[in-house]
């Protein structure tokens, strides 16, 4: 009977799953729905009718109580009576609400610890964000008392909606499954928490990370230069400081005024403050490296300190094993509570002996394991003196990958924060890969958009995030590594070339080490990192277009802007002496000049310099190719102008060459910018999403391939034997005649068979030889051992014995193989003969024979 | 060969030849320029003197910076006169008549050496060429294959050419060479394949293994020696060398023949042992103290230089800032003056600029004066601290040495006592022990004996005094040198800076003066 029922259950579950899939298999439907309910309004949702849910297909454990559960209910009843007797002025406990089938179930048994097979869910924040994304929040029927109903987590998951208790039980089940020491909490919280109103919260994405003040270790040196006496008038300084303070004060006043305005927007005092019932999750320290206890609000998935002022009190906590009532004073909220559940004065336990204080870590774990083992085995009874919590009546929690990925109830979720709106989508739902959008407003009414941030996933162009600042009109795009040409960040106002833009690159991925390129109409600034030539900065200025085209006479770059000046800066190259190591190089194209500035020598304050004047065309025709006037040199620290003209000339030649290359390079970077812009435009015009090859569900091609290969394998079971052509070598010998005579055929067959026979014999011989060799060796070793036995130490003896047994093993194996070979050889021979007989090439003649 | 040798007139390397060789390497335009300026052989880095029938290498000492020298296809008989070309990387002496490898010891940077087609019969005299990568000695008279073992010392050798030598006829030639030079990549213009290498190793490992072992041992010994030397060096800088252990004590008795004789007296041996123990322990104390003080001194000096460096960097930055400010301000100044429309404007601008330059000079000099003051104070502090450290060290050393002397005195007294006792016994013929004859001779006269003991004592005291004196003088010397260096550095720095400022200002002035102004209106 039992078995049958279970089978039924299985079927039912499958059917449920199928239904769920059917629902989510209609993306068009979802999208149309999406457009309708663009804005998520929590109050509208309660129109879902829980009474209409289908309970007929639920397993029997949902509909009945086992004897142990009944006993538990009795114990709970007893406990409740005692409790009401002891604390008559406290509210009744939340102990055994009715489930979806109208059966009273103890709350602890509703918790069904489950570890789901998704890596994200191995960690508490993954679980919490999943629960808050996946379920739609429903307010409690009455905000002042706990609900009389508590549905199973499976039902909640199926319909994707629930109140705070449903949220907590589900989250708690997942957390315990993931190994956390988690508890459901029944208590009181502020209105904002209870009603999932985050409009007064700053969006977590906008919160600035707290800056850790860096401790600067400054050991004061005994040898310090005394600073020169301060000649500034103290009075003047004071006056200035005063003025500054005054202006600041006025500023502050203004700000305060503003603050007042914002404060007005805060809600008036809640009349039900401290009475609003809420349920959340408590995670205690000890397991999974949790350093100290914290709360998780299941509606938002955020963690809160146990001191958080939004949580106003705790009635009771429970997990899958026990139930504790808080006996501490909650007048100051949860600030002063101590979460040592083993402390019987502060926490009144229900099933006293079942659970030792959870502070004892090892015990708890062991019990956990024990529990896990017993979990599926519902019938096993532990008849101890004390009563153990019966296993959960809830069926295992299951989430399909599709459901897991889709996350939010219809693939979309909207959260309103203070001056911000956050929208979330499931991956692949939007064609452009959009998964998250944050809109920041200037005002509380959310009318004036300041900034829009969009996050993308699975985009082929590696776009990760786009930020649009409405005030400056700047668009910033962030890319993951892997975009063409190593693009990392792109800041721009418009996609038109030669306008203001900044591109940052993954310099590790680029040959030229380019890290950043800032551009506007008249200049390009390029920053480099880690180049072999120590260049870290390059600045190019452009002149007005079209002005000098005829003069320059350059046919190739008629459309490009004429370069006016190029400047390069270099880091110090320690292999060269400082005054030969160029720090800055400026090419003044229009003035035909080159300025070189060298690095500073140690302790020097003036840098060596060289200014070259490039020889003009007609000048060059004269015999003198280099004159002293063409170069003005300042050599720091040496008055001798020793550099010969020859060296200067060589240098000038080198520089001319460099200039040419640099020009080319500038043109290349211009071209690169254009190229990137074009690529970006194309990518934006036709957005493609990547699909992992492991994702068989989405990767259509892969799926088809996979199915195709499967089908192939089914149709053509591989027969290696058929592929081998025994006759090929012999046919080659006689030269592949079209037709063979009977004699030829017979000879062919005989050749083939004798060859096979020889091979079999050779094989057997090899095995035989090996066998003999091993035996011989064994004999030898044995003999040796016998001779030296008296002199051998114990260790040597052990070594010998090990060796001996190994050799014996080898011999045994070889003997087995020899035997098998002997048995199978004749069969193989016959099989080949048979095959040859059937061979179409020989069949004609052999069938006669 | 001999015929052609006779028919060729041997040449000598002279100025003319060198001039020509240098000029050949330049393109036309540079050549012209260079000619007009005169060639400086110091600037030449590459020189080719091939096919010139040179008999003797000479006159190359001027080419100090030469890195590549080709002397191939001459009739050179002896490698010589290359000692000064220490930067040489590539030397080609192929196709000559060289018989012995020699005269290469100073060319430590040599990477590529070709002695192809000569008359060399032995590989030798190349120990210093540790950078050698390519070595060609084909077509020579090398007969003994064992010569190749010599090449093992070149750890960077990758390419080797031995073709055409008599020993190449031998059957196992290739394997032998490959086995002995395991890192070789090319042998006789061919890549050494892995299979060859394996084969060679398997064939000759019986030869190679002991060789390797030997080399490893030699290396270990060398390292050990170096480490020891380094440690000694360290002790020396701490002025306490040979004080850890009984070195000093042993030295007391090293040249003391009397003491050796006296040691035979009964009871002296024990006394000596005790004395030795005490003495060594005092020495050890001194040694440890010396090391500790050394660390302290070093720390003090390094801290000073750190502070000095900080101050100088700050000063450099400040100076740099002043100059950069000035330069930015006056970038266009010269142009303006140059292009001024009228003489008056130009003149006034020029005066203005001149004023500015003076101003700059003033600022920089003030800054420098300030720095000098600051640094002087710093250095004086340093001097004071060093003096304190040195004097404490000296005090303590003196104290410990006094301990040594005390020990010696005490030992002396006891020894004297024993000696006299023994003498008395000996006189009374109560002496039991057998003593060597020369010792017995001593025990005749009291004065002789006492004199002897006294001499021994004096020798010891002298030794101790000398050691103490060593330490003290070293310490004084160190103190003087450290402070002197600090002062000298500062003086040099100051001079350099002042020179720099003047030079810079001069340069600016010159630039300003060089501008041709419009003619003043008459």
From TrEMBL, chain B:
Residues that span the membrane, as ranges: none
Coiled coil: 343-392
Subcellular location: Cytoplasm, Cytoskeleton, Flagellum axoneme
Keywords on record: Cell projection, Cilium, Coiled coil, Cytoplasm, Cytoskeleton, Flagellum, Leucine-rich repeat, Repeat
Presence of keyword Manganese: no
Annotated GO CC locations: cilium
Entry-linked Gene3D superfamilies: Ribonuclease Inhibitor
Domain of life: Eukaryota
Principal subcellular localization: cytoplasm
SUPFAM superfamilies assigned to the protein according to its UniProt record, in alphabetical order: Outer arm dynein light chain 1 (SSF52075)
PANTHER family: DYNEIN REGULATORY COMPLEX SUBUNIT 3, PROTEIN PHOSPHATASE 1 REGULATORY SUBUNIT SDS22-RELATED
Family: Belongs to the DRC3 family.
Protein name, entry field: Dynein regulatory complex subunit 3
Organism: Anser cygnoides
Lineage: Eukaryota, Metazoa, Chordata, Craniata, Vertebrata
